[in-house]
Here is the input.
Amino acid sequence: MSVDISMPAFSEWPDRGLDLEALYDDGWQPVPFDQYVVKIHSRCNLACDYCYMYELADQSWRDQPVVMAPAIASATAKRIAAHARRHELDAISVSFHGGEPLLAGHERIAALAREFRSAVDSRVQLQLNVQTNGMLLTDRMLKALQAQDITVGVSLDGDRTATDRHRLTRRGDSGYDRVEAGLERLTSPAYRHLFAGLLAVIDVDNDPVGTYESLARFAPPSIDLLLPHATWAAPPPHKATPDGGVDATDTTYGEWLNTAFDHWYDLGRSRVPVRLFRSAIRAWIGGSADIEQLGTGALSFLVIETDGAIEQVDSLKVAFEGATGTGLHVLRDELDAAFRHPGVIARQIGIRALSPTCQSCRLRDICGGGQYAHRYKPMSGFLNNSVYCADLMVFLDHVGDRLRADIATLRKA
Here is the structure.
């Protein structure tokens, strides 16, 4: 199987001297795709100022159809089903995404669910999910989601003050009351079994303990704390230097995470699972991280855009226009064709995709270079350490210190 180096933006996907074709000759096998983000609606009823879809480098959303057409949805379902069958997968997950997916309406979402369930073999466990901002979680919508067994993840950055820093409507109004009302419906006895978790983007101006507690009050199954998407060319808040560069020594985000971690860790069994914290602990004790932000595990995501384009994980939109592109489409290409894209290969070959700095780092196998998109720098592409490198080192060292202290205490007991 050859690698097509004429694919879009190949120069931004460094091969570091690796012979990509030789990976196959040496027996390397790609990891089948078992997680899909399907963009069913390309517009949103919020205007979050950090959104990778609308506010950052890639503005391709402007050319996307508003709603995924039935023919594209059918082709997507069939491609996913064929990929699962070919690779004998036991389980796959499909997340209906956007924009704001619930803008598609409850009838369209129900039809999509039926389309995917009828396409996928009955022996394959299919998990359907929507990732929503929560504004449209009405009783009518929740009944439709319940009827199709679609779980619900909600994006929320904390309490009203924390959320309203960034997550306002297009008119500049707060949507917090509507999101809170939606979450109260979702967490009622009738629908709580659909609740998949909360996703929050970190703002270091928000209190870390208050952020955790304001999310934990909804008793979600898990909390995802995400660093704001940024690169060496588009610095995170608080890290930009006067000349537009990045202060690589600043550890504001790491210190914020340490405070949140200590509070969470000290809660013991009463704490709500936080995936970043649990993954960091797991990595320190020899396990593998199961999130994009840490570890060297092979990524098994694909994104299907509203127009049917097969793309890489869309956090890459922070890097440059077209960063997610593969040149593939569900009406024309099998999903296996994505295995030939150098960007997909780079996400699946583990430590071999890391920069020399990360290769020689003592935290290499725990950190894994951080989130791939956050490594981007013009001219060197993704062959860099994370723009959050200093923060990740401070945070991961702190987690390791807490674990070692506990082990030492147990040994003395």
Summary: The two ends are 57 Å apart (CA to CA). The chain is about 30% helix and 10% strand. The first strand starts at residue 35 and ends at 39. Residues 187 and 218 are 7 Å apart (CA to CA).
